[in-house]
Amino acid sequence: GHPALAPFGTTIFTTMSALAAEHDAVNLGQGFPDTDGPPEVLAAAVEAIRGGRNQYPPGPGTPDLRRAVAEHQERFYGLRYDPASEVLVTVGATEAIAVAMLALLRPGDEVVMFEPYYDSYAATVALAGGVRRTSVLTFPDFAVDEASLRAAFSDRTRVVLLNSPHNPTGKVFTREELELVASLAREHDAWVVTDEVYEHLVFDDARHVPLASLPGMRERTLTISSGGKTFSTTGWKVGWVCGPAAAVAALLAVKQFLTFGASGPFQPAVAAGLRLPDEVFAGLAHALEAKRDRLVGGLRRMGLEVAVPRGTYFVVADVAPLGVVDATDWCLGLPERAGVGAIPVAAFHDDAAAARTLVRLAFCKEDHVLDEGVRRLATLV
Ligand code: PMP
Ligand code: GLN
């Protein structure tokens, strides 16, 4: 394989979903919903396919989707972007993250990120020849540790790679925490690449604050999101980046030779989704909040300590009370032994010791699936 990728091996999602399928397990591992999203969005894709929109879309994305992304940023956050020069459509958030790293980093440049981190972050930084510097968020409160965050910055810091709401912890960064990140980025003249794919999956009284909305940050921030989570269409791979024109042009220069473009008929469908009324977005969060409570309740009844997530569709639990000493080994055996798929949080860490007995479970599943997952896990108590 590619030398820069050698330390990463096979992504945990591939490994765990294959094991779950092999053992016909209840898959609470890889995060994807088991029901479809808004019917208007699905109908728009069918219509686009029937209407012959099956050839290459424009490389930067269809003008209409770029307009819809800009309208969405303004409607929800008051952030204004020029659709023609400041919005770029990508093949999911995954491609956006990769092209941002490839475009912004020179070999040896450092990227500050919180740990645990979404697994593609470390791999794409490595592909770009960058070096990651991490600050650990610790179970169960996952609070930002200011001293360790400061220590992660240096005169080689080029990018801060942020993710809020945060996978795998479900943490929604507070405005104060984001202000700290922003002030350090300004101090070190760094770009912030912020992955906000779970922007609409926020619960209780938590609010998603886009980093670009903080004073002085729009000009140094690239904001990434995706239709996959918001419209329950993870297989469509329609993502986007918003940011200053010069940076967006630099990402496009890379992107044109990675994929050029993709997901032609799904681009108008996601544009239709982004224009749905506020209630549709709120309805998704509302439905997921009830599922969160259902899974958290089940895990607590088993005697597990749970970090209650205020965003995303993941919950982290400590399975030490089940006699587990290494959650990675435990998760590898779980589909066969209990018929459940789960993700070890250590997969998102450089230092596995920080998450030895922690597992991530997804709750974007039908209630009866969550109940069956809990029932099966409870047989291990
Ligand atoms: N970032 C985070 C934090 C994610 O959880 C995911 C999806 N699992 C992605 C990026 C990738 O998004 P997409 O499917 O749109 O490529
Ligand atoms: N984002 C999903 C998760 O965290 C998985 C994405 C993938 O399979 N690469 O579960």
From TrEMBL:
<protein>
    <submittedName>
        <fullName>Succinyldiaminopimelate aminotransferase</fullName>
    </submittedName>
</protein>
<dbReference type="Pfam" id="PF00155">
    <property type="entry name" value="Aminotran_1_2"/>
</dbReference>
<dbReference type="InterPro" id="IPR015424">
    <property type="entry name" value="PyrdxlP-dep_Trfase"/>
</dbReference>
<dbReference type="InterPro" id="IPR015421">
    <property type="entry name" value="PyrdxlP-dep_Trfase_major"/>
</dbReference>
<dbReference type="InterPro" id="IPR051326">
    <property type="entry name" value="Kynurenine-oxoglutarate_AT"/>
</dbReference>
<dbReference type="InterPro" id="IPR004839">
    <property type="entry name" value="Aminotransferase_I/II_large"/>
</dbReference>
<keyword id="KW-0032">Aminotransferase</keyword>
<dbReference type="GO" id="GO:0030170">
    <property type="term" value="F:pyridoxal phosphate binding"/>
</dbReference>
<comment type="similarity">
    <text>Belongs to the class-I pyridoxal-phosphate-dependent aminotransferase family.</text>
</comment>
<dbReference type="GO" id="GO:0016212">
    <property type="term" value="F:kynurenine-oxoglutarate transaminase activity"/>
</dbReference>
<feature type="domain" description="Aminotransferase class I/classII large">
    <location>
        <begin position="24"/>
        <end position="377"/>
    </location>
</feature>
<dbReference type="GO" id="GO:0005737">
    <property type="term" value="C:cytoplasm"/>
</dbReference>
<dbReference type="InterPro" id="IPR015422">
    <property type="entry name" value="PyrdxlP-dep_Trfase_small"/>
</dbReference>
<keyword id="KW-0808">Transferase</keyword>
<keyword id="KW-0663">Pyridoxal phosphate</keyword>
